[in-house]
Amino acid sequence: MEQIIKELHSIGDFIRWGASEFNKAELFFGHGTDNAIDDAAVLVLHTLNLANEKIPNILWHSRLTSSEKQDIYNILQRRINEAIPTAYLTNEAWFSNLRFYVDSRVLIPRSPIAELIEQGFEPWVEADQVNYMLDLCTGSGCIAIASAMLFPNAKIDAVDISADAVDVAKINIDAYGLNERVNAIQSDLFANLDGKVYDLIVCNPPYVDAEELAAMPNEYHHEPRLGLEAGDNGLLLVEQILRQAAQHLTANGVLIVEVGLSQKYLMEHELPFMWLDFERGGEGVFLLTAQQLIDY
Known about the structure:
By secondary structure, this protein is an alpha/beta fold.
């Protein structure tokens, strides 16, 4: 440690060294970055209180103080030795161009549903027709909050079975000043939503099957198992949602659910799933209308 701190001097030095060590440790990148250099840069700049700043070229070569070097070394070592996702080390994740507080009580936002929100859910949803929306399995509240920006007049329920997740969602709801329109509720799916109906239900539930869970990189095992695990075929919750969603949708309501790789098992159900495409990558997100669910 002392030798490294002695030989490295600048922001660029520590980013390069960190990236090399990340690759040597065969870390996984997929919780906000997709490569070692970006991952190291996030941690270094966060530690220097320069996160999200536009860094002039001259700063990359600026010398660091001894205490700054020590702090940077310590956080990089945690990433290397414990395989903690960077978002948990910084308590920051981005979704639909919005910043969210995250910690190990919730999954790190990474759903392709962000792209749907940025596109206004078009052409399947008319923004001015959404008065009530449900974000089921909300986690950090990212889908609910990003959707609240899209639907300025809508009331949105952000629901999760985990009391810890609801607490994190409330932190983010409060940070965006949305307490009047976004309501965080603890509920096992629809259990505490009796009588409530919505124009749009969006859900990113646990959908990881047993085989996929066992094969996941170490970083994923820092995330709450409750937010990932969904039985042998990954459809433990999705099948419940398909049975119950119709009674919570308006006549012209729409259900959008992410099922990831468990799509292959869901295809065995005789439903007219519309599988959505994404320009930035992602798969396993389907859409059904209220009438299609009623027929089912």
